[in-house]
Amino acid sequence: MRPLGGPRTTRRDPAPTRLAYRLHRLWLTPFFRAMLRVGIPVFCLVFAAAWYVGDDARRSALVDKYYELRRSIEQRPEFMVGLMRIEGASPEVVQDIHEILAIDFPISSFELDLEYMRGMVVGLDAVEKAELRIAPGGILRVDVAERQPAVIWRGRDGLEMLDAQGHRVSALESRADRPDLPLIAGEGAQDSVPEALDLFAAAGPIAGRVRGLVRVGERRWDLVLDRDQRILLPETGALRALERVIALDQAEDMLARDIVTVDMRNGERPTLRLAPGATAQRQQTTITEAGVTEG
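Given the sequence above, the corresponding structure tokens read:
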């Protein structure tokens, strides 16, 4: 038996202390765990990097190292471009492209801004579309679609060739250089090329006599024929009015007569103006048929 007066042992309380309880609750917080696992390491790294690059000498050496590494990659043979090949362009356009791009080969492909260069090529009057790409073998390939001349426009600055939409293609020294293209003239004529082409197509039966179209007041057309004849077309419905004149000519051979103008500006009342000699001859015919002689 143990003596009643022997030493007594104290049992440890299993409950956590107030501080341990609060730390445990704090650790269960997602934000606190993220700060310990990510925030503090990142802060230490940023602080160390800021301290390292804070020195001018170290920062300069680091920048030089970066550019040296970049140059070593960009100057590798597989990234070098040695020549330019232009497809689909006439010799004049090829020369213009070489002049505006002015690339000093060999050059790294990293130094070529293909989209900017494409904009420069498309900016040429004669170029409708262009595509630039680096082809295997270090070749800068330029595929060009040129505008096709559809008419010749005689404006204040001389002769210019325009495409079917009225875009400028190039200047023209002489009308005789492109006799296959129809001629338009007058202020604003370049803005109505599609309509002009429709009128030239409608004038097909008399194409051999057509000299060109003249824009009048930037709102309507005159069709000019040989023998100084003109067909004055209305502001609206010009194609229909011209087709009426062509039909009358095919039926009555009207344009073969001594007529100066065929005025179709008033669709309800077309007007013909005869040449002065034809008017006198007609009057003489009328006098003779009436049996009247001049004294």
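Residues 64 and 70 are 10 Å apart (CA to CA). Try to locate this feature in the token string yourself.
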